[in-house]
């Protein structure tokens, strides 16, 4: 997304990736009864009836995001996307959902949560996370506060920390998670509480 783009919610590629997560993984986790394997949904055109069901599932996801993320609701209902976009994505950070990396990361966390919870509860749980890139919890993990730039290499680490905080990260992999975190911050001795 170009730096000066203040009106778009996200990039088309980020939206594609999120919709793929919804159709393939969330659909499978919650058992909506629709095909979810890659070859079932990518190689063959689903019936019109199934396409309508997929559309409703995607809308259910984004309506849940609107329900628990007031900034997203304001953006969707705004008449002035540019004015709101400038407020939600700016040079010193911005809202996590309004950067492609953040939207995709939050969607991956929601997807993992749907293995244990309903879609509504999964979205509600993640909405308790810090929502601004410039938040101290994301310093040098998602956002470089010195150069005011996105850190691209730590998204998976932040996602796993969130899952750990929410109690759905595999217990057997916690030591590995701590090692990954310590590799980034040598002086830290425990996984932080983000949520």
Report on this structure.
This protein is mainly α and 195 residues long. It has one domain (12-184). Helix content is 54%, strand content 4%. It has nine helices and four strands, in the order αααααββααββαα. Strands 1-2 form a two-stranded antiparallel ribbon. β3 (143-144) and β4 form a beta hairpin. α1 packs across α3 (48-68). It is globular and about 55 Å long. The mean pLDDT is 88.
Keywords summarizing the entry:
single chain; 195 residues; mainly alpha; two-stranded antiparallel ribbon; 9 helices; 4 strands; globular
Topology:
Elements: H1 12-30, H2 38-42, H3 48-68, H4 70-77, H5 81-88, E1 89-90, E2 93-94, H6 100-113, H7 119-126, E3 143-144, E4 149-150, H8 155-165, H9 174-184
Antiparallel strand pairs: 1-2, 3-4
């Amino acid at each position: 997304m170009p730096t000066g783009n203040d009106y778009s919610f996200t990039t088309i590629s980020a939206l594609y990736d999120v919709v793929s997560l919804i159709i393939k993984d969330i659909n499978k986790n919650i058992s909506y009864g629709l095909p979810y394997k890659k070859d079932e949904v990518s190689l063959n055109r689903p019936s019109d009836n199934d396409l309508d069901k997929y559309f409703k599932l995607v809308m259910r996801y984004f309506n849940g995001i609107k329900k628990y993320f007031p900034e997203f609701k304001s953006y969707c209902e705004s008449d002035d996307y540019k004015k709101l976009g400038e407020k939600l994505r700016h040079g010193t950070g911005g809202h996590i959902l309004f950067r492609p990396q953040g939207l995709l990361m939050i969607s991956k966390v929601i997807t993992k949560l749907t293995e244990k919870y309903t879609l509504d509860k999964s979205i509600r749980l993640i909405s308790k996370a810090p929502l601004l890139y410039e938040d101290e919890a994301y310093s040098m993990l998602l956002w470089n506060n010195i150069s005011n730039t996105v850190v691209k290499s730590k998204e998976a680490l932040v996602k796993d920390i969130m899952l750990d905080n929410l109690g759905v990260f595999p217990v057997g992999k916690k030591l590995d998670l701590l090692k990954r975190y310590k590799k980034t911050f040598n002086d830290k001795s425990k996984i932080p509480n983000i949520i």
